[in-house]
Amino acid sequence: MNTDAPSDPLAALKPIHPPDSVPWWPLAPGWWLLLSMLVVATLLAVWWWRRGQLQRTTLKLLKQATANKSNATTCAAAINDILKRYALQRYPREQVAGLTGKAWGDFLDSLAPSGGRLGAYLTDLPYRENAPGPDCANLYQLARRWLRHQRHTRGRH
Questions:
Q1: Global pTM?
Q2: Is residue 126 a contact partner of residue 80, using CB atoms and an 8 Å limit?
Q3: What angle do CA 84, 90, 93 make, to 5 degrees?
Q4: Over the stretch 146-155, which tens digit does the pLDDT of each residue have?
Q5: Average pLDDT for the chain
Q6: In this structure, are residues 133 and 124 in contact, taking their beta carbons and an 8 Å threshold?
Q7: DSSP letter string over the chain?
Q8: CA nearest 144: which of 115, 120, 113, 123?
Q9: Which of 57, 62, 59, 79 is nearest to 133 (CA)?
Q10: What does the alpha-carbon distance between residue 62 and residue 83 come to, in Å, rounded to a whole number?
Q11: Omega of the bond leading into 113 within 30 degrees of 0 (cis)
């Protein structure tokens, strides 16, 4: 028998060397994709929140302006002012700023849900005493419905 051979063949092996650690930079393509999706999602969330913020603020102003008014004439004037400010923020200034009277009413009615006559009421009531039309609470509801409908229309934002 050969006495030169080691009794344990595994003892002759060299120790295992672990591979070099993976560097954290540059990032793998999957991380770049995840980061870009996160940036896009953040920008969309900010845009959506800002658009909703404008509507929430306008709804709050409408509610405050019509809370204690019983006269439809003063109520219509207040709602008209608030909706004009909203439209100047939401739609191109060149399209909205110069609108007055019937043109403004037609603009409002063109963006109203089907059967909306809000623009006609807002342009007629402030200038007519005892004109037939809705009371302040109904004007508020029409304005509120018009405003909520704007979420589904295209504007500047």
A1: 0.69
A2: yes
A3: 70
A4: 998 887 666 5
A5: 86
A6: yes
A7: --SSS-S-GGGGSPPPPPPPPPPSSSPPHHHHHHHHHHHHHHHHHHHHHHHHHHHHHHHHHHHHHHTT---HHHHHHHHHHHHHHHHHHHS-HHHHTT--HHHHHHHHHHTSSTT--HHHHHHHGGGSTT-SS--HHHHHHHHHHHHHHGGGS----
A8: 113
A9: 79
A10: 9
A11: no
CA angle 17, 20, 25 (to 5 degrees): 170
Determine phi and psi for 28, rounding to 5 degrees. Answer: -70, 155
C-beta separation of 79 from 122 below 8 A: yes
The overall longest dimension of the chain from CA atoms, in Å, is 126
Joined tokens for residue 122: 């807002």
Q: Which amino acid is present at 110?
A: S
> Per-residue pLDDT tens for 17-37?
899 988 888 999 999 999 999
Q: What's the token pair of residue 52? A: 């909703």
Residue with tokens 């909203």: 86
